[in-house]
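Lecture notes, continued. The same structure-token format from the folding unit now serves as the input rather than the output. Read the line below as a description of shape only.
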């Protein structure tokens, strides 16, 4: 199965309005400049995962796992993703071979003996134990239903609008796969959602420089994860 779809995204770079009441020529020139809008048309194309995507996908996964990336066999993980090239999508700019985003899912039960899946499972259980969530996560991993490990990765500044069509295509692909008797009927999905955590700066009582001792502010790196969180039966952060 091959697929190629296009999604247009318009981005306004500058906006402003001309003040026609100004008589000063310099002011009018500045107003004219502010009134101009530069529209950049970007054509995104959607593809099935291909071997040529290996290095770009690995780089995106490294960014997602952050400082812990060295603890995983990411090359083996990308190989697993590419081995099921009818499931998932990559996003590329028109005429560019490198993907800038991808979305896919791996069956953790089918690949339970593969090193990358074992590493991720053990890693999550250890993190969950520190947060008191190991019991629920272990129940999900060891249950009778199959568990899908979701990967939704993209480069910084990639517009989140590309996620909706990828999710729609993934749902369709999973339905087709299940209809063909393939093991893609999942009881649960596991998603690693990167977050930013900042501490608000507050004034020092002694009148010195501000210190970051205020309440923390959490924000998802991927805006869509905030909505996915509403449907989670279990969650923890680390």
């Amino acid at each position: 199965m091959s697929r190629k779809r296009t999604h247009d995204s318009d981005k306004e770079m500058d906006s402003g309005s001309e003040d026609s009441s100004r008589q000063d020529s310099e002011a009018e020139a500045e107003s004219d400049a502010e009134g101009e809008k530069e529209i950049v048309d970007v054509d995104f194309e959607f593809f099935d995962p291909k071997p040529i995507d290996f290095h770009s996908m690995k780089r995106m996964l490294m960014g997602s796992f952050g400082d812990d990336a060295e603890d995983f066999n990411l090359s083996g993980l990308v190989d697993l993703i590419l081995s099921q090239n009818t499931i998932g999508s990559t996003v590329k700019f028109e005429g560019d071979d490198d993907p800038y985003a991808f979305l896919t899912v791996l069956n953790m039960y089918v690949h339970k003996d593969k090193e990358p899946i074992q590493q991720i499972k053990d890693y999550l259980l250890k993190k969950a134990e520190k947060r008191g969530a190991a019991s629920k996560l272990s129940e999900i991993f060891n249950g009778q239903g199959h568990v899908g490990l979701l990967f939704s990765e993209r480069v910084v500044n990639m517009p989140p609008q590309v996620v909706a069509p990828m999710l729609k295509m993934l749902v369709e692909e999973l339905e087709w796969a299940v209809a063909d008797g393939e093991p893609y009927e999942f009881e649960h999905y596991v998603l690693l959602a990167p977050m930013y955590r900042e501490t608000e700066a507050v004034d020092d009582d002694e009148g010195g420089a501000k210190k970051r001792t205020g309440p923390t502010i959490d924000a998802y790196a991927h805006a869509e994860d905030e909505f996915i969180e509403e449907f989670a039966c279990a969650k923890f952060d680390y």
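Point for the exam: The two ends are 39 Å apart (CA to CA).
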